[in-house]
UniProtKB/TrEMBL annotation, chain A:
Cellular compartment(s): Cell membrane
Domain of life of the organism encoding this protein: Bacteria
Transmembrane parts of this sequence: 12-31, 73-95, 107-126, 154-179, 200-223, 260-280
Protein's recorded name: Carbohydrate ABC transporter membrane protein 1, CUT1 family (TC 3.A.1.1.-)
Pfam family for this entry, one: BPD_transp_1
GO cellular component annotations of the record: plasma membrane
Keyword Flavoprotein in record: no
Keyword Metal-binding: no
Species annotation: Gracilibacillus orientalis
Similarity-based family: Belongs to the binding-protein-dependent transport system permease family.
From TrEMBL, chain B:
UniProt record, GO biological process: transmembrane transport
Keyword tRNA processing: no
Predominant localisation class: membrane
Protein name: Carbohydrate ABC transporter membrane protein 2, CUT1 family (TC 3.A.1.1.-)
Origin species: Gracilibacillus orientalis
Source species, domain of life: Bacteria
UniProt-listed Gene3D superfamilies: MetI-like
Family per record: Belongs to the binding-protein-dependent transport system permease family.
Amino acid sequence: MKKQWIQDFRAIPFLLPFFIAYMIFTIFPIFKGLEMSLYDWTLVRKIEFVGLENYTKMFTDRHFWRTLWNTTFFVILTTPTMVLLALGLALLSNLNTKFKTFFRSSFFIPSILSVSVISFLMIFMLQPYNGLVNNIIQMIGIDAEPKWMADQGLAWVTIVVVTLWWTVGFNMILFLAGLQDIPHSLYEASEIDGASRWDMFKYITLPQLIPIGRVILLLQVLASYKVFAQILLITGGGPGGATRPLIQYIYEVGFNQNNLGYAATMSYALFFILLILSIIQLKSQRSGEN
Amino acid sequence: MSNRRFSNEATIEVKKSKNTVLQRNRDPKLGLKVTLGFIIALIFILPIIWMLFVSIKPNGFSTTEPFEWFLPPYTFYNYVDIMFGSLIFRWLFNSLFVAVITTILTLIITSLAAFAISQMKFRFKNFIFIFFLLGLMIPGEATIIPLYEVAKSFGLIDTYAGLILPMIASPLGVIILKSFFDNVPKEVVESAIIDGCSYFKLFYKIVLPLAKPALSAIGIFTFIGSWNNFLWPYLSVLSETLYTLPVGLPVFNATYSQAYVQPMTANAIASIPVIIAFLIFEKQIVKGISFTGIKG
């Protein structure tokens, strides 16, 4: 009994630094957020207890629903395109040529750049009249002046394409690792059986990639629900709020409208969406391992 | 000696047979695929190359002819101008400082905790591990408003400590390191303990060096994450002198709506260090992604 106590005591210095940081900055804010959502709470201090008022407000706030839909729309647009593009680029980087490292590096390098850099690169490249993209379009003979950031439909295209370009590298490398894990003997055996390249792709490569594909799909949904910075910087949520995501609205309510209580309430809604998604992810990963 | 010769011959034979397989099974569309790969690769790096070329154009340059962006005259004056005439250099320092300290602290606290959970015996161990695991499901973006209040009550708003400390408790780091430490041979640990080695010595003399691949993967990702972190510095820093590059660049760029050269030079200054680091550490980064992505 006494010995056990000594053992416990020895573990404390190892656990304590992580434990303290984890409690203060990860666990405590969850409870703090619950408290804040029940108050009228400004940037300076808490004003008064309002019960569930913030929650009833949220359910009837059309800006909340609109921005939640915008975020969901972004998830719907980016997830399938991201998975397909990542798979395609991984297949290209896995080709048996001396350029494979060049391909992989080129596809991955945008991922290491800061969101501010890629956003402003795009703003400058996509400007009407003297932006590089429109000038190239005109050079190849198309007489058009697309307003990439001011037109509602094009603004979505811009955001999705920029996000794909910026983040696909990470998913591509996951697929590439999956491709390289496929046992070579499977291909050799099928070759003896006279399978064509397309047969091999359909019956060996794709099925073997399903586990990693599922991980990528769910990670992508989770990441896309947190979209904020590139939209804020490229379109500012515009035109007319058409691309404004939920996190931007939460930020504006909290810091521009000075209403942290209501911002914390909406954060809770986002929290539950992401919590459910990550439980699904952990569950499916567990079942994938078994 | 004879062994080596034997293995050499064996590899030659393997190479030969591989070649014949390849020849028989040559992809007829390989050329087409490689061309497609080249076109996409060029599209992917074109914006970055354009940025680098614009940054060495004379001040005030603009054109509607796409090729002219890439032609001389060149000058490096913009770099000198921006490094000394703006806060970019300060923000570059802030970003580096915050990223380095965040990475070091993350590695220290996660490896200590992972070591205790992996190698030591104490009560409630499983409970504590599961409690740390829960952190994986808590999205930082969704708790950032209360985090702001918490940081405020500790006096961390608008400080370096405020930029660093909330980012260091990485549950994923603990999980990855624990699974790595679990693979340290039991005999090594037991004989060290019998020899009177303290747990702390065991930790940093024996277990930690064995976990180098995991440590470098976590280190690289923590660094990139911190270097590119936008939301938290955007909320928690108010003074321009404390901005990190991701927060400072938009402020700097927003003052130039039509001029190209200064904003692209600023973007290039922010990107060149990470591009160089990427080219040096590419192998580790690629390995690290497949490692953490599959495990986490």
